[in-house]
Amino acid sequence: MSTPNSYERVELEGLSTSFFLNNRQRFIKNLKEHIVSLPENSYLFLMGGKDLYRYDNDDELFYFIQESNFYYLTGVLEANYYATINLTDASVSLYIPQPTEREKIFLHWETLEQIAEKYKCQTFDLVKLPQEINRLNPKKIYVLNGTNSDSGNKVLTCDYVFPAPYDKLNDIVDHDELIYEILADTRTRKSQEEIDLLKYINQVTVEGHVEAMKKIAKNYKNKIIERDVENYFFGYTRRKLYSRNHPYEHICGCGVDGATLHYINNDQELKDGQLILMDMGALAGGYVSDVTSTVPVNGKFTEKQKQIYDIVLDANKQVQNNAKPGVSWTEMHLLAEKVILTGLQNLGLLQKDYSVDDMVKDRVAYYFMPHGLGHLMGIDVHDAGGYLSFTPERNKEKGLDCLRTARYLEPNMVLSDEPGIYFIPYLLEKGFNDEKVSKYFVQDKIKEYYDFGGVRIEDDILITDDGCVNLTEGLPRTTEEIEKTMSSN
Length: 489
Prior knowledge:
By secondary structure, the protein is α+β, with helices and mostly antiparallel strands. 35% of the residues lie in helices and 12% in strands. It is globular, with a radius of gyration of 25 Å.
């Protein structure tokens, strides 16, 4: 069995082929549980991601990242490949475009034999794809088709059309959307190797956040900007992981910028007395982390900052204390809302004449936390499988369409636990003017926080057989731990 430390050079050496064979076998097992009449000698036909030039430039390409489903099942890193997967024995065949004369000169290009050895599979020149698939005499050819429920975007579907004299193969291509849903569902439950990799990535992410905290406290008087903080983190993870890319655009919002949920400018100066919200994750071996810390620039929380921070931390911890198999993620979101509303009511920002249950029912928490509690994680930061046609889940009747998943938790799911409190004047003013909810707000008190920004505390958690494990354990979380860390230079 792999251990987290065995992934130290994964960005240089890649993952083992057994890693992806295991993914394929688990997918096929899940497929057969949902499709009883899966024909013998059937195949999944996949199209990988395409490399693209930057607009009208003929030399610079966009940074290529493999399409997630293709990577999950094959482990292939290169662009423009096609693949077939035998749904009986889980074997893979790759169909590879051959280089032009110019590409042979300018690029590093591996031969079919080298690719075959690298991925432990059969490889063919792409021009031979139709006759090779015809030679297999398949009874059914499945392609992925459907919509990613998290993003609302269509999944990448293999658009290959078999030419004559092999055009009869087009008649057995099956576009059933259930195939993609079953794959997305398989991705929601991680193998032990995936868990070990995610543990390692999160361990390095924790170290990177601590590095950033210490350097902020050391350098803030030198008029550093938010982007310097991003560089502290990425510099560390890049040295540790050899990673050359972010899993997402990092958020380093200081002061009022911390209330912008997807703030990516990262160009403002850090000011003494402000909080900085740092949403920064790492990428290795095609898998990601997504972690947020909120800390005082000068290393010392004010009483006002501590009060808001402790409410969010309480919500974060109560979710982890209650998340376990069989629990609805919707209920975890509502638990976080109740903690936040209770805390704000105790601080005098919400009227004490109303019950927290009434405020939950009328969606008052939305005006302070306008996003869902968290999301599934894995290859994608917002991983697939949040909503499926064959899984029992609920959220629409509660008005919680902000949730990226409403799944009932199962062992080996990995999710982010990221409650927050944000003071967004536009959103709060909208609430003040809404007859249904305006009665709950203590407006004058809330307006005192318009320059506060926001607090988010985000951990990545693994659902176990009887609870959950915090993959970002060791990251300073209490105000005392943060202050101690930032003063340890």
